[in-house]
Design brief:
The protein has 63 residues and is α+β, with helices and mostly antiparallel strands. The chain has one domain (4-55). 22% of the residues lie in helices and 16% in strands. It has one helix at residues 21-34, and strands at 4-7, 42-45, 54-55. A 3-stranded mixed sheet has the order 1-2-3, with helices on one face. The N and C termini lie far apart (26 Å). 5% of the residues are buried. This is KamA family protein. Keywords: 4Fe-4S, Iron, Iron-sulfur, Metal-binding, Pyridoxal phosphate. It comes from Klebsiella pneumoniae. Its cofactor is pyridoxal 5'-phosphate.
Length: 63
């Protein structure tokens, strides 16, 4: 089971995999409706200079 779903860096040869942060968030919101919460990976991005992957906020409201 995947731990992270990565928003890819903009590198040569990977343009066909590129999605915007908003598109990635929408994919994750749809995924949450299809599978159990503990199986949903964290949406993350690698940011230069940061010590680890940075989770992206999905913009979900708490109930």
């Amino acid at each position: 089971m995947p731990y992270y779903l990565h928003v890819l860096d903009r590198v040569q040869g990977a343009a066909h995999f590129m999605v915007s942060d908003d598109e990635a968030r929408e994919i994750m919101r749809e995924l949450l409706t299809l599978i159990s919460g503990y199986m949903v990976p964290k949406l993350a991005r690698e940011i230069g200079g940061e010590p680890s992957k940075t989770p992206l906020d999905l913009g979900l409201k708490q109930r």
